[in-house]
Amino acid sequence: MGPAGQYVVATRAFEQAYELAPLPAISFSTAQALRLQFFVDHKPAGLQRAIARYRRYIEATPSGGRRQDAVTSLAEIEPIFMRLSAEAPTAPPEPPELPTQLMITSAIAGAWGTVDGAVQQDLPMVLDVSPGPHTITAGAEAHDVIKLDVLAAERRLAVVEVELKPQPARLVIDADLSADVHINGLIKGRTPISLKLPPGPAEVSLVGSGVVPWSRSIQLKPNAEVELKLQLRRTTQRSAAHAVLLAALTGLAAGAGVGVAALVDDGSAADINQRRLSSGISPAELAEYERLVDRRDGRRTATYIVAGSSVLLGIVGGALYLLESPRLP
């Protein structure tokens, strides 16, 4: 659409708006569009209408607003109109035969549209249409295509602004440790996870028990994928809990080994003692019996100590593990 077409459409829109709300500011905007249109098409009729709109605004605005701009513009175009009228006097312009039109706009750069399946055009666009219902189809790259049913009133300009919804972005998060995933403060699940999210800035946080919180601001683009592969760190408390529990298990294993050895010594001592009671034993066997008994008792004591210490370590490690709460970054 060229400049002349833009000013014509703007003039129609302002005049229709003035019919609904006769505000001085709309008169001024109409006069501005008519004045600019004249410098494109050089038609005196438009200049005459601009003068009338400027005068209407000045009368309604005794001070302030855009009054000074209106006075300046009026002083610029009145001499031009008087000169053109003197050179070629014309009768007062008759109201133009206005077409029925649709103006389709969008805030999305690169948007396109069609009316009733006609040839696709870039937005904004203005089309002459027949009065009655019409179907508008519009879209843009990385945005969903939409359809709208509109009604065109005879000899009126219907302005339709299409709101295009961007296609969602995809966020994939994988981490070596399990953690809750928070997007803009809302929990969305646990890792690993794949999410469809609205495009735009997003604050991604990973929070879990025993995990050092992780956070990052990212930008999500329509119909695009962001993949995060993360190496999370364990908290000091969780690492300590694991170390203490491992020590407890090791102690229990060691205690079990010592306990088994004590049972072996006890069995060997019992065999010697059985022979002593039935047939007698030699001094050397008696000495071996006493050595086995002493070692058995020492190993039993060691088993009790190691097992007790291991249980205590297990309690401490379990408390460290269970009492740690997730922390937000």
Q: How many separate domains?
A: 4
Low-confidence stretches: none
Question: N-to-C terminal Cα separation, in Å?
Answer: 53 Å
What is the helix content?
Answer: 40-55%
Secondary-structure element order, as H and E? HHHHEEEEEEEEEEEEEEHH
Record the strand order, biggest sheet: 3-2-5-6
% residues in beta strands = 25-35%
Structural class by SSE content: alpha+beta
Mean pLDDT: 85
Q: Given the C-alpha coordinates, what overall shape results?
A: rod-shaped
Radius of gyration over all CA atoms, rounded: 45 Å
Major sheet: size, sense and barrel closure?
Answer: 4 strands, antiparallel
Number of separate strands: 14
Description:
- Helix content is 48%, strand content 25%.
- With 329 residues, it is α+β, with helices and mostly antiparallel strands.
- Helix 3 runs antiparallel to helix 4.
- The longest helix has 43 residues.
- The two termini are 53 Å apart.
Describe this protein with a few key phrases.
alpha+beta, four-stranded antiparallel sheet, 48% helix, 6 helices, Immunoglobulin-like, 329 residues, 4 domains, Serine Threonine Protein Phosphatase 5, Tetratricopeptide repeat
